[in-house]
Amino acid sequence: MSLARMGGGWGGAVRSSGVKQWAWPALMLGLWGAMPALAAGTDTGAGQAAAARATAGTGIAPYADRVMLDAAPRWDDEAQDAAPYDAAGLPRSLRFEARTARSNSDFGPTRSGSVSVRGGWDTLNHGSFSIDGSARLWDESATVRERGGVSFSLQQRGMPFSGGWSASNALGVIQTLNPVSPLLPSAVLVPSRLIQGVATQWQHEGQGLTLQFSAGETGSYRSVGQGAFQGSGNGVMGWGLALKGGGRSGATLLPAGWRYSAWGSRATGGTTTLNTAWGVMPREPASMGVLQSLGWASAGAQAQGQWLLSRSADSGALGAAAASRQARLGLWLDAASAAGGLAHRWGVHRLEPDLSWQGGAVSGNAVGGYYRWSRSGLRTQWDAQLGSSRPLDAARGGISVQQAGLSVRHALSSQLGVGGLLQFMGGTRTAMQLTGYLDAHPSWADVRLQSGAETTSGQLALVHVASDQAWRLPGDWRLSSSQAWSTSRRSVSSSAVSGWARSLELGAAGGTDVGASVTVDVSARASLPLADAERARLYQLSVNGQWHVAPGWSVGLSLARSHSSGLAAPELASPLPSLPGSYVPASYAGHSARDVWLSLRYDFQAGMASLPLGAGARADGGSGAVEGVVFFDDNGNGRLDAREGRAADITVVLDGRYSIRTDAQGHYEFPFVASGTHSLQVASDTLPLPWAMPNPDAVTVVVQPRDSARQDFAAQRERAGALSPGWR
């Protein structure tokens, strides 16, 4: 499993001064540089370099994936055809961007500058690598000037080793690793943490075993997308394992269909209150935790149970004695089944207050469950859900929620579809929503019409009508537009209802390609009050252009203008997740801004993904080489003696499918062969008479990652009594 799927990329930060700030990057780079040395051998035993070396001076071309036309088809033919061996190279990419921005607003001018670089490359036997680095050169306003900072990320995925193991490693600012075994999305999320540190994962697919470790310091970036990493002082460490039954070798520790994972963590506690681009993050408490998961899956059903036991100091009492810490327990179970277009999902949870994980809070103080049902047909899809949750400890706060909902989608034809949603909510607050929509796809546009209403505390609170269009235009033109009208109560409570606020929202986005080198896009949005003098007017306009000045190089320019009249903001607050809600006024001052961004970018991409030759080939399984000599064993001792000749232009077959011919010295080589066990044989009909192979059966060779397996073939003269079985 790649580190990307684990929720983390590599990153690191170098702060502006001090030896301590360089300690982590120096240690990380040292560990990174040591990784290839741990591998048994190097890439020199496989790939294009080996092919060129094997054929140097022989007058023949390197191996080019020649497939025997009369060979029986294999199950992996399609995969081999979809990703053929590319002699031009493996995938590789690079992006460099320098960017400067300036803004003039009612709060004064601000300006910033940054550079960034991203790149990735695949190797035949060391997995894939990527780098992601950025430097904030300046970031200042009329009142604040931020320090410059450099950050980098490194990632390596899928380095194969002998014995079926593969390794993935991470360095810098990364997401901490969590157990990899969950089968189902859960209503309870145990978040990973952003840290400056290291992580490693070792996986053996044949045995279904995964080992993980990560460690570092939590923190945050000072600004979005760039800037130095700001540490919190909270050091975290996590370690765990995952087991999966039914691996390729069958020698797994669990029965087929079962999964188990266990993960332990420790956080030392933070000493710093962070001021980030998103606000203030409080100091983090010291904590310890154990998270376990057990899952089972069959052809039509899955079930998964997880439990978290954590112990932490209160965030307001850092440094408190261990005796003051309290253990908290969270339990949740999720299950799903599907058959014949009918699917069921359900789950229950019990979460004690103040659950934590690696110094961060986990949603707690709740007990409840949910049930979801769906049915899919050729034209109609039904979805229904029920849910309930209440505080486990009412004295600690929290709300009670009961939900029920039903939605339907129906395709009247390939160009017309309708649908709707009805949802209820009870508990601390009561609400209901009814929404309907129509999707049309005529030849001139894709159109959606939508209308809905919502009640809160038994009274009508919102009516909303909207339309969206994606227009089909000739040539390189593109255009989309949207219109919405809404009327909502300015406040709703059980005892008082105030007036209505009506508004119209308009939006459009479009662009075109001017020739082959210039792209222009424009977007605009406006929110206009219709019957409320206190409602704010909002206007936004942006123009973006990109000019490809040379192969790979482009210059980008963005201009933006925004204005708000202030007074009352059009904020909507809904008791239902992801739904509109009643209008809540919030006074604020007017604001205007003019922004300019200028960028210079270089993009490069090349190479093509490839699978190694042979049975069981996988893109992440590693490869080696198979080579040897076919010779005329005149004395029959099975060894190549100095006076014995070598057999040129003889066909050698790998796995009954791939063939190559020997060179003038009788040498052959398959330079890119999947790790594992393979069959190899000489096509006897290509040997000159009276020579033949004493044993016409295929021999077995074992290929290790980054290694070369050698197999010589000794042809002998045919003698009386040594005829093939067909002649006896």
Q: Helices, strands, pairings?
A:
Layout: E1 12-14, H1 20-38, H2 48-55, H3 77-82, E2 92-105, E3 108-122, E4 128-141, E5 145-146, E6 149-160, E7 165-175, E8 194-204, E9 209-223, E10 226-244, E11 258-267, E12 274-276, E13 279-281, E14 287-297, E15 301-312, E16 326-339, E17 342-351, E18 356-357, E19 360-361, E20 366-376, E21 380-390, E22 401-413, E23 416-427, E24 431-440, E25 445-456, E26 459-471, E27 478-489, E28 500-514, E29 518-529, E30 538-550, E31 553-564, E32 567-568, E33 571-573, E34 582-584, E35 587-588, E36 591-606, E37 623-632, E38 651-654, E39 658-661, E40 667-674, E41 676-682, E42 691-692, E43 699-703, E44 708-710, E45 713-717
Parallel strand pairs: 37-44, 37-45
Antiparallel strand pairs: 1-6, 2-3, 2-36, 3-4, 4-5, 4-6, 6-7, 7-8, 8-9, 9-10, 10-11, 11-14, 12-13, 14-15, 15-16, 16-17, 17-20, 18-19, 20-21, 21-22, 22-23, 23-24, 24-25, 25-26, 26-27, 27-28, 28-29, 29-30, 30-31, 31-36, 32-35, 33-34, 37-40, 38-39, 38-41, 41-43, 42-45
What does this protein look like?
This protein is mainly beta and 728 residues long. Helix content is 5%, strand content 55%. β3 and β4 (128-141) form a beta hairpin. It starts with 11 loop residues before the first strand and ends in an 11-residue tail after the last strand.
